[in-house]
Amino acid sequence: MVTAIVILFVLGYLCIALESVFKINKAAPALLMCVGCWVLYMVNPEPFVALTHGTAWTEFSREFAGGGAAVQAFVSEHILLPHLGDTCEILFFLMGAMTIVEIVDANGGFNFVRNSLRTENKHKLLWRVAFMTFFLSAVLDNLTTSIVMVMVLRKLVATHKDRLIYAAAIVLSANAGGAFSPIGDVTTIMLWIKGNVSTGGVIAELFLPSLVSVIVPILLLQRSLTGQLAAPKMADAGDALHFTNAERNIVFWLGVGGLVSVPVFRILTGLPPFMGILLVLGLLWATTDLFYRNKSHIKENARQRVTHLLTRIDMSTILFFLGILMAVAVLSETGVLTAFGQSLNDVSGGNHYVVTGVIGIVSSIVDNVPLVAGCMGMYPIATEAAVQANPAMIDFMQDGVFWQLLAYCAGVGGSMLIIGSAAGVVVMGLEKITFGWYLRRITWIAFAGYLAGMAAYWLEKTFLF
Description:
With 465 residues, the chain is mainly alpha-helical. 73% of the residues lie in helices and 0% in strands. It has 25 helices and no strands. It has helices at 2-17, 19-22, 27-43, 46-52, 54-61, 67-106, 111-117, 122-139, 142-154, 160-179, 186-193, 199-221, 245-260, 262-269, 273-293, 306-309, 315-333, 336-348, 352-362, 368-378, 384-389, 401-412, 422-431, 435-441, 443-463. Helix 6 (67-106) packs parallel to helix 9 (142-154), helix 8 runs antiparallel to helix 9 and helix 12 packs parallel to helix 22 (401-412). The longest helix has 40 residues, at 67-106. The chain is globular, with a radius of gyration of 23 Å.
């Protein structure tokens, strides 16, 4: 049954990859793949349940007389719903962040960001966009940063062909920026919360490799841009608004400032990030409605109300993300991901650069969250006593080589395919980037930056740390 699940996943993935050939929206095969994998899993789920949830399954099954009813109930309550909950956390965060950015953009909040980046030189703009995305993604998360930068980019670049290059740079820079920050990417957050890496360690030792992984691709990407920029026809559409400058500033700082404060909200309340996003969205919604309350001279259909802006959210991207994450959850539940990691370790002879390097490449195909989770389950954090008994375990201590490489590779590796990261999926939906175009034009560039960053880390560990 595991073989059938893997085959179905591969076929579904091929349909997604060949979206431009089949002319079928990527969300459709993702949803079919998701449901199909779970149906195959449910044909005989008990061996998988016993393997991955041994103790919990034993206790739960005692309450049921029939084994079939017990395992179905266990899968529904203890496997499927938790995975759905984890996925929905990401989806609600995504929808909330997209809506917040749409509100700020529609009401002119990003005008000053646009003005600070604006230049007629295509190469200068590419570097400015890349560096701003890189540093913003370390403060915000890479997903939110990608949405913000695409919105700003639309005000600066008129030609869609050129805008695709800039959008690719956003994906590369956002993923790299998220890799050296403990709050910049889901995988670094996981490693940080569990104590595999520390704030100081991950910033100090991964900043340079992450920066190199951006600089190399940008040097290669700028060759695709020639001539001068033409201003977008609607570049100043955001200026023809009904809000005053003060109101626009309030909208901007409430929206973007709220996004920045989401990690703080999580620390203070212990609630998941999507709750912070919903709080910011509610405040921004109420604020803009209050502003419009005092503008009776404006016709209702001309107002940029949130109820209207919600229709701009790309639901096909949301459903695609749902299908992909829930399908990968099946691979995790069947033990495929963990077995892959263990076999990879055996083949490589324990070479951390090979193991994490391949994990990074695989993370461009499947979601990096279960991959990192599988690695965290395979290797415990080494203690000083364990290192004294086996000096080789030093690489598995907090801020050890293995954990830092895992953070870098899982974050930056997702850039090699457009669907390999949340940032890529969002930009793909916003700018209508096809899988094939990205594969032909960007994948090899992202791979070059990926290897350059790993080389920088090796040099850093050899001569500096």
